[in-house]
Structure formats: C-alpha cells, structure tokens
Amino acid sequence: MASYVNSILRFPFFTIARAGEIMEDLSVPKLAFENIHHVLRRKGYLILDVPSKSNLVDMLLSSIGREPTWGSKIDRTHVAFYDEESMKSLLHSNGFETIKVRGVSFIRYDLLSLFSFTWNKRKWWLPKLIDAAMERFFNLGNLGAIQVFLCETSSRPKSSNLQ
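Above: the chain's sequence. Below: its structure in token form.
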C-alpha cells in the first residue's frame, strides 16, 4: 500500500492543497512548501491559515509599547509568528503568489485561557456570539486573529531531495 501511495504522489496530482494552522508549528516551513509544490499541479492553489500577529489585540498592545507574547504563553508548540507581510514573503520565497488575504475572528479564543476561562468549548457561546456580531457589523479586511491566504503556484522551488 505504501508503495502505491508513493507512486501516486511522485507526480503533481492535486489542484488544491490546504494547510490549516500548521506553519506556525514548523521550524523549517520550506520543507512543507516543497512537499505541497510536489503534489500540486502546475496551476495549483494553496489555502493556508495561520494565527496572526495582525489582530486587534496585538496591535493595541504594540501601540502602547508592549510586545505581544500571547503565542508563547498559550501554545508552546508555536515556533514562528507571522503577520501578513512576513507570511506573504515566506510564500513568495517558496514559489507561491498570494491572491487574497482575509482576516477571520475578532476575538482570540486563546486569550480567554489567560483569564482562567475554560477550554470547554461548549462554554464559548458568548465569545462566539460577540465575534459573530462584530464580524457582521465591522469589516475585518485583512485583520483578524486568524489570517487566511489564497495562493497560486508561481514557480517550483529548488528541491531539497525530498523522497
């Protein structure tokens, strides 16, 4: 079975790939981008989302001279933190052109745990209700606790001999 899967994945096969909140956990994202390129067709698309430093809370902290450190306090598995420009640069250097960026969610749910709010998601109805109301009445644009990137393959990056 493994040889069958490997033989399929030798050639570009997929039109769309999705990487959901994974890049911030990787110390060498270049390898992930090479693998994604490897399985995407020539005109392939990547939908990528990452926790973003380009959110309202972190921007407010920065404006008063405080360094946002929420990621390291909440999730120690995050080894990298991105804002829109740094992610676009990373994507571009790895053979992807950004088509569109969209911010999602006003409220960073991870912040709630700093205030001893439970991780029991059934009790998150109030923050989710507030978040939904704010998104309905205010346009986030590219700002948000999560940023979603729609990208298109532009070139094949030089391989690191991934086999």
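The chain has a mean pLDDT of 77.
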